[in-house]
Here is the input.
Amino acid sequence: MARHFLNLGDAGGDALAAIINDALDRKAARAGWPKGRPDAGAPLEGRVLAMIFEKNSTRTRVSFDMAMRQLGGAAMVMESGSMQLGRGESIADTARVLSRMVDAIMIRTDDHAKIEEMARHATVPVINGLTDQSHPCQIVADLLTIVEQGKALPGLEVAWLGDGNNVLHSILEAAGLMKFNVRVATPQGYEPDGGFVKAARARGAGVTLTSDAVAAVRGVDIVVTDTWVSMGQSHAAEKIAAMMPYQVNEALMAHASPDARFLHCLPAHIGEEVTQGVFGSAQSVVFDEAENRIHAQKSVLLWCFGAI
Ligand code: CP
Ligand code: NVA
Here is the structure.
């Protein structure tokens, strides 16, 4: 059975901790090296990752490509529209064919059921590069960034502001696995999927749902937001208006712990979910977070190949 990485729970808490530790070690071991030089031992030498994109991407495509190079392997990128998948070939047959040709598949798509279908029919690992439901690779990078900032995950207080979306779902999953607490502030009607809230609570995470942005942020260690309009959604004026009280600006950030950090998966929309004042502040670690996509995913890939 191939080890798929469709959601963080596929790995579980112990593996997630091991993935983060491996990423920290690998990142430190190659500090200052040219970015394309393989890690010592080139652990994925001879392995090839195929990436399928049904949505746009900058960070995910570049970071997975660089991750494979740094592990000694190679990657290829395909836009689904230029594949037979884009003109009706089934996901099942695509999975079967790619499994004969490459060693792992990463896919970014809309409906999460598509990635589950891919995993059912692939005999090589399938990795979730974002679906409408979740974005687990992003959150491994976020956890790595938080740990690098000297903050322990158990007991951490995290505030999420804005839209209850795919990125938040993976944060909630991480909260359950790593035992931290999430205060979610959204306008009414934009709450996260109840299943993720319930599962996080069942695993022992504290999850608070509120419409009060200041109450959510008060004293927290981490403030996170994301675009108010995810890929595939329309830029509706009424949604933007409902989200405005949840903008992460200097006044809101002042309610967090003085040592709090600001995270955003990017791309950011300055003047919507975050102001330039917060985005460019000393508390913002968004570009460490972006770089960490490479380091985090190298360790996710190694986990998928059974090396962690
Ligand atoms: N954060 C993230 O996944 O970025 P891309 O959409 O650029 O891949
Ligand atoms: N929630 C965003 C994340 C982009 C990386 C989206 O799905 O578009």
Q: What stands out?
A: Residues 57-60, 130, 138, 265-266 surround phosphoric acid mono(formamide)ester (ligand 1) (CB under 6 Å). The radius of gyration is 19 Å. The domain at 8-134+293-304 is CATH 3.40.50.1370 (Rossmann fold).
